[in-house]
Write a structure and sequence with these properties.
Oligomer: heterodimer
Strand order of the largest sheet of chain B: 1-2
Catalytic activity (chain A): a quinol + 2 Fe(III)-[cytochrome c](out) = a quinone + 2 Fe(II)-[cytochrome c](out) + 2 H(+)(out)
Largest interface: A-B, 67 and 66 residues
Number of strands of chain B: 2
Strand order of the largest sheet of chain A: 1-2
Structural class of chain B: mainly alpha
Order of helices and strands of chain B: HHEHHHHHHHEHHHHHH
CATH architecture of one domain in chain A: Orthogonal Bundle
Helix content of chain A: 40-55%
Distance between the termini of chain A: 59 Å
Distance between the termini of chain B: 55 Å
Radius of gyration of chain B: 23 Å
CATH architecture of the largest domain in chain B: Up-down Bundle
CATH superfamily of one domain in chain A: Cytochrome c-like domain
Organism (chain A): Aspergillus niger (strain ATCC MYA-4892 / CBS 513.88 / FGSC A1513)
Subcellular location (chain A): Mitochondrion inner membrane
GO molecular function (chain A): heme binding; metal ion binding; oxidoreductase activity; quinol-cytochrome-c reductase activity
Largest sheet of chain B: 2 strands, antiparallel
Shape of chain A: extended
CATH topology of one domain in chain A: Cytochrome Bc1 Complex, Chain D, domain 2
Order of helices and strands of chain A: HHHHHHHEEHHEEHH
Number of domains of chain B: 2
GO biological process, one term (chain A): mitochondrial electron transport, ubiquinol to cytochrome c
Chain lengths: ~325, ~375
């Protein structure tokens, strides 16, 4: 469009005729100039077509999604929930974290490990030192080899990590019909959809698979899981956990709490990060404002200068 | 004489950053250079810090990165800065190149600066790719597998070269170790190249300007005018970077890379980071593997022909409306390619990718020379009465 308008303002035929005559002097740098320069209208057309193709394909591409897999293989896209802790100016709800940890301990921990989270990291976040020490001591850990080279057992310390439910991957697979329950330390960061996906998965088990859906033996139907057949069954039912703070333990409440807890497990630095972010943005905005002021202060004489041309005057 | 002008080292600083006379009319689009230098600085400082805690071993790499994220004081800040500044680096370098294309910065006498700049882009991409492998998540491993396998397209010796790069028969511990060593080395090569880039410009005619004419009619010293002008964009850059680092640090990353590398399981889609997508799209648009690899590398090297194929007598496109249209089509096409690079290989994206690839190369080899010749003619006709 623009190209056409631009070219329309130029007398076409005159251009074409004259440019043919002037080719030798004008396009000394290239021999290709003669035939191309003689037909600017074709080029306008090409340019317009190219613009149309580029803009059209851009609109087309941004407008739709491609799926290499069928919707079932892809898994149902989770609903976007308004997570309070995901907002830029919000921290984790630490009571929810505490409830979520209770759900993890009483429900998830029988199959899923949380190997990157040590007992110490709970202190000051959702539990007191004494609570965590007691919790750590409930577990046994191997000692260093003693003088005889024997490895003994000792109660856990704050510096220990949460023990895994199975000795190794093979044991985990053997106990779960060949499926490996993934470690949950990074699950929120390591899955497309993050919190929304985990929440949808936990609460998305239908009572029965929909008509037409086939699920293999020992598998369960969940529309949010890629492939829809998941080895894990529905684990959250109303009242399966009794919250110590009296919150009614509905399925969605537990799912929400445990997702927030797993988000903390994946990003324990989030509260600090956002707090530091607010400080950084505040500070930098101030510095930016000052820098704009200094720049204008330094440049104002340049921007407001007047350049005068005094023609030479003959003095005779 | 002032020590700034007589001291053998300080006088270099003086001639580059203090007294250095710059054209008075350069716009804010001339600020990307200082921002890119800042990016390189941030990357080297954060990178060296990360290297103090990182373990380049297939068994421990992922764990050591998580150790940095969880246990090292402010380790998350250092790593998120490193990861997001890499994206910012490419975002700015594309703007910097776009500025060069728009204002004809590649034209003589700045061809050497432009050529070094193209080499810098290639080294940057290599460095970014090597760095992305280091956390050794799923996308690290499989990205490394895909990209190193490109070399197998070389006739006769391709497979041998790939195994030489791997140091084995697949991406393994030796690969990770050498990638770490090279990722540590290349930023310093980049710094040297950036210095060459600067010297090549400084010792010819210095910065161009938006009018495309000589800058000698009106110049201002670098200090204080351009130091304070650069500072404005530096703070804007820090604000935007902070928004990413502190509030959405993983927005530009792939969640697949928070899953530990598993050679037994291929992720559903192997996608490079956003800044490599246009070239990945060009690679995938060519049905032949060898030609695809050649096309991908040529796509970057095509920048080098700009000084030759732009036959215009004017510097830059600001007074050449046809070229302006061609420039914006090129930019739109680049963004289209970036989208296509992230799509699965299937109709219609294959065909669109091929059209975009043709348009990409046509810009450098056909559109620019033809349009510049037409404009030469028009200018000549208009000025000759």
């Amino acid at each position: 469009m623009l190209a056409r308008t631009v070219l329309r303002s130029v007398p076409f035929r005159g251009v074409a005729r004259q440019s043919l005559n002037k080719t030798s002097t004008r396009a000394s740098s290239s021999a290709a100039g003669a035939e191309s320069a003689s037909s600017p209208f074709h080029l306008t057309l090409t340019a317009s077509a190219a613009t149309a193709v580029a803009l059209g394909s851009a609109a087309y591409l941004y407008g739709q999604e491609a799926f290499a897999m069928t919707p079932a293989e892809e898994g149902l896209h989770p609903t976007a929930y308004p997570w309070e802790h995901a907002k830029w100016n919000k921290t984790f709800d630490h009571q929810a974290l505490r409830r979520g940890f209770q759900v993890y301990r009483e429900v998830c921990a029988s199959c899923h490990s949380l190997t990157r989270v040590p007992w110490r990291s709970f202190v000051g976040v959702m539990h007191t030192v004494d609570e965590m020490k007691a919790m750590a001591e409930e577990n046994e850990y191997d000692t260093e080899p003693n003088d005889q080279g024997e490895i003994e057992k000792r109660p856990g310390k704050l510096s220990d990590y949460i023990p895994a439910p199975y000795k190794n991957e093979e044991a985990a697979r053997a106990a779960n019909g060949g499926a490996l329950p993934p470690d949950l330390s990074l699950i929120v960061k390591g899955r497309h959809g993050g919190c929304n996906y985990i929440f949808s998965l936990l609460t998305g088990y239908p009572d029965e698979p929909p008509a037409g859906a086939t699920v293999g033996a020992g598998m369960n139907f969940n529309p949010y899981f890629p492939g829809t057949a998941i080895a894990m069954g529905r684990v959250l039912f109303d009242g399966v956990v009794e919250y110590e703070d009296g919150t009614p333990a509905t399925t969605s409440q537990m799912a929400k709490d445990v997702v927030e807890f797993l988000n903390w497990a994946a990003e324990p630095e989030m509260d600090d990060r956002k707090k530091m972010g607010v400080k950084a943005i505040t500070l930098l905005t101030g510095l930016f404002a000052i820098s704009v002021w200094v720049k204008r202060y330094k440049w104002s004489p340049i921007k407001t200068r007047k350049i005068v041309y005094s023609p030479p005057v003959s003095r005779r | 004489m002032r020590i700034l002008k007589s001291h053998p080292l300080l006088k270099i600083v003086n001639s580059y950053m203090i007294d250095s006379p710059q054209p008075a009319n350069i716009s804010y689009l001339w600020n990307f250079g200082s921002l890119l230098a800042l990016c390189l600085g941030i990357q080297i400082v954060t990178g060296v810090t990360l290297a103090m805690h990182y373990t380049p071993s297939v068994l421990e790499a992922f764990n050591s990165v998580e150790h940095i994220m969880r246990d090292v004081n402010n380790g998350w800040l250092v790593r998120y800065l490193h990861a997001n500044t890499a994206s910012a680096f490419f975002f700015l370098v594309y703007l910097h190149i776009g500025r060069g294309l728009y204002y004809g910065s590649y034209k003589s006498p700045r061809t050497l600066t432009w050529a070094i700049g193209t080499v810098i882009l290639i080294v940057m991409m290599a460095t970014a790719f090597l760095g992305y492998v280091l956390p050794y998540g799923q996308m690290s491993l499989w990205g490394a597998t895909v990209i190193t396998n490109l070399m197998s397209a070389i006739p006769w010796i391709g497979q041998d070269i790939v195994e030489f790069i791997w140091g084995g028969f697949s991406v393994n511990n030796a690969t990770l170790n050498r990638f770490f060593a090279l990722h540590f080395l290349l930023p310093f090569v980049l710094a040297a190249l950036a210095l060459m880039h600067l010297i090549a410009m400084h010792d010819t005619v210095g910065s161009g300007n938006p009018l495309g004419i000589s800058g000698n009619y009106d110049r201002l010293p670098f200090a204080p005018y351009f130091i304070f002008k650069d500072l404005v964009t530096i703070f804007i850059f820090f604000i935007v970077l902070s928004i990413f680092v502190f509030f959405m640090p993983n927005a530009l990353g792939d969640s697949e890379n928070y899953v530990m590398a598993n050679p037994m399981q291929t992720p559903p889609a192997i996608v490079p980071e956003w800044y490599l997508l246009p070239f990945y799209a060009i690679l995938r648009s060519i049905p032949n593997k060898l030609l695809g690899v050649i096309a991908m590398f040529s796509a970057i090297l095509a920048l080098m022909v700009m000084p030759i194929t732009d036959l215009s007598k004017l510097r830059g496109v600001q007074f050449r409306p046809l070229s302006k249209v061609a420039f914006y089509i090129f930019v739109a096409n680049f963004l289209v390619l970036m989208q296509i690079g992230a799509k699965h290989v299937e109709t219609p994206f294959i065909e669109l990718g091929q059209i975009s690839t043709v348009l990409y190369f046509a810009h450098f080899f056909v559109i620019v020379p033809v349009v510049s010749l037409i404009e030469n003619s028009l200018v000549e006709l208009a000025t000759k009465k």
